Amino acid sequence: MNPAALINLALLALFGLQHSVMARAWFKQRVKLPKPRRTYALATLVVLVIMWRLWQPMPDLAWHWQGAVAIGLYIVWTFGLQLILFGAMSINARELLGFAEPAPAEFRTPFLYTIVRHPIYLGAILTLWATPQMTQGRLLFAAGLTLYILIGIQFEERDLERQFGDVYRVYKQRVPMLIPSLRKSLPLPPPPQ
Q1: For residue 142, is it within any domain?
Q2: 33: left (phi over 0), alpha (psi -120 to 50) or beta
Q3: Is 117 exposed, middle or buried (0-12, 13-18, 19+ CB in 10 A)?
Q4: Is residue 187 part of a domain?
Q5: Among 121, 145, 139, 137, which Cα is nearest to 14's?
Q6: Residue 189 domain-assigned?
Q7: Which structural domain, as residue segments, surrounds residue 92?
Q8: How many domains does the chain have?
Q9: Which residue among 5, 14, 112, 151 has its CA within the 20 to 30 Å range from the CA of 188?
């Protein structure tokens, strides 16, 4: 395997490990950190800076689109960014960024969370993939983070089920994980006569 790809994979693994381990309840119980949310956000920032500094270029193109397809991809990218921003603002961006410690847990479903359970993750996936020019390095980054998101959702939802019980289980049944469903949001047609 290409040495640049190996280094980049190790950096993605470092991000995944830090992000996942520090988010788990067992870690929070064993390692008593002052201001845990702020420490978590700061540790994530440190790992992101390390990734940015050590990421190895892999400039060969995986794809390059022009014209209407490129414009469409920019529109999808912008929509993904909006999902991230509005999803974060609707649940408390200050907590997510580590500027405030979380308030006592209360299960809420602001607007975007009635359409998909994870609008921020959906937005992240869209911004990772919606690019007219995808290099091999960016493809590796997009694939690695998408895999991390899909695995991370499983752990996060398991934790949310433990925390909120049947309320979250019913929510999971009613609201799709990442891909909105028109079928669920539209009224059922009347039965045939």
Answers
A1: yes
A2: beta
A3: buried
A4: no
A5: 145
A6: no
A7: 3-182
A8: 1
A9: 112
Question: DSSP alpha helices (H): ranges in 24-164?
Answer: 25-30, 36-54, 67-91, 93-96, 119-129, 136-164
In a domain, 193, yes or no: no
Tens-place pLDDT, residues 95-140: 777 777 777 778 888 889 999 999 999 999 999 999 999 999 999 9
**Whole-number Å distance between alpha carbons of 182 and 115:** 9
Contact call for residues 121 and 45 (beta carbons, < 8 A): no
**Cβ(179)–Cβ(116) below 8 Å:** yes
Q: Do 98 and 40 touch, CB atoms closer than 8 A?
A: yes
Tokens 């609707």: give the residue.
90
Q: For residue 115, which phi and psi values (nearest 5 degrees)?
A: -100, -45
Calpha distance 117→171 (Å, rounded): 8
> pTM for the complete prediction?
0.87
pLDDT tens-place string over residues 90-100? 887 777 777 77
